[in-house]
Amino acid sequence: MLPPTTWMVTGANRGLGLELCRRLLADPQRFVIAATRSPEEAHELQKISRANPERVHIQKLDVTSVEEAKAAAEQVARLPIIEQNGLDCFVSNAGVCSGGPRTVTEMDMDELKDCVNANTIGTIISTHAFLPSCGREKSKAGSDWYNLHLHHELHSEGFTIAAFLPGYMNTKMAHINNNYDDESMMLDPAVAAANSLRLLDRLRPEDSGKKWSTQTGLEVPW
Ligand SMILES: NC(=O)c1ccc[n+]([C@@H]2O[C@H](COP(=O)([O-])OP(=O)(O)OC[C@H]3O[C@@H](n4cnc5c(N)ncnc54)[C@H](OP(=O)(O)O)[C@@H]3O)[C@@H](O)[C@H]2O)c1
């Protein structure tokens, strides 16, 4: 299978999303739509875009906003390369992590709402908006049940849906929660991005509907 040429990554301004964009662009065949909720503050992305002016489009997108997701999908659909090729791969990477207690009896309800809103509802909103642009293939990380439903609905149309576990990475998110503050135990996000792309490049249609550890490259049970 030839590697995809048009990619979209949400939450692309830092952490894993930024490293995925960097690594994708190392291959001159790839065009990257880098989505961030604040393009004007995404200085690293702007640098990457200046270095690859023909192959990067920075897109404003807060994944929790239905209106913004619809508008973003319309803008992306009008890009000449998307009009011509469609979107090969959609990576739902944006997410937040609660810094509060991890037990169900102690968790803070407002933090829980924020997490569900960004990680689950945000994945669904953004994926739903960009589905029409996805022609051949689609890969994402997101909520498990949503992945499975997408797989059952879309696999027969040629979509490949995969959930990725990147492992504990040394990003801003990891430092929100003190459980993961031992940096020697954390992956560099650049390494995690390389792991993810290595796995994505070897996914076959029959791998759809499965969950993967990008660190080991092995399937993990749901
Ligand atoms: N770090 C870990 O150890 C770890 C482990 C397992 C899974 N993951 C998953 O890996 C993914 C990337 O995490 P990371 O470690 O790179 O975290 P990170 O450095 O905190 O980056 C999170 C990214 O998500 C964006 N984001 C958050 N809410 C958003 C929203 N409503 N709309 C659009 N963008 C939004 C952030 O943008 P802003 O800059 O605008 O906030 C940022 O770009 C997440 O899905 C996370 O759940 C991480």
UniProtKB/TrEMBL annotation:
Short name of any one Pfam family annotated for the protein: adh_short
InterPro entries the UniProt entry points to: NAD(P)-bd_dom_sf, SDR_enzymes, SDR_fam
SUPFAM superfamilies according to UniProt: NAD(P)-binding Rossmann-fold domains (SSF51735)
Example of a GO MF term: oxidoreductase activity, acting on the CH-OH group of donors, NAD or NADP as acceptor
UniProt xrefs under PANTHER family: SHORT CHAIN DEHYDROGENASE (PTHR45458:SF1), SHORT-CHAIN DEHYDROGENASE/REDUCTASE SDR (PTHR45458)
Protein name, UniProt field: NAD(P)-binding protein
Native organism: Mycena metata
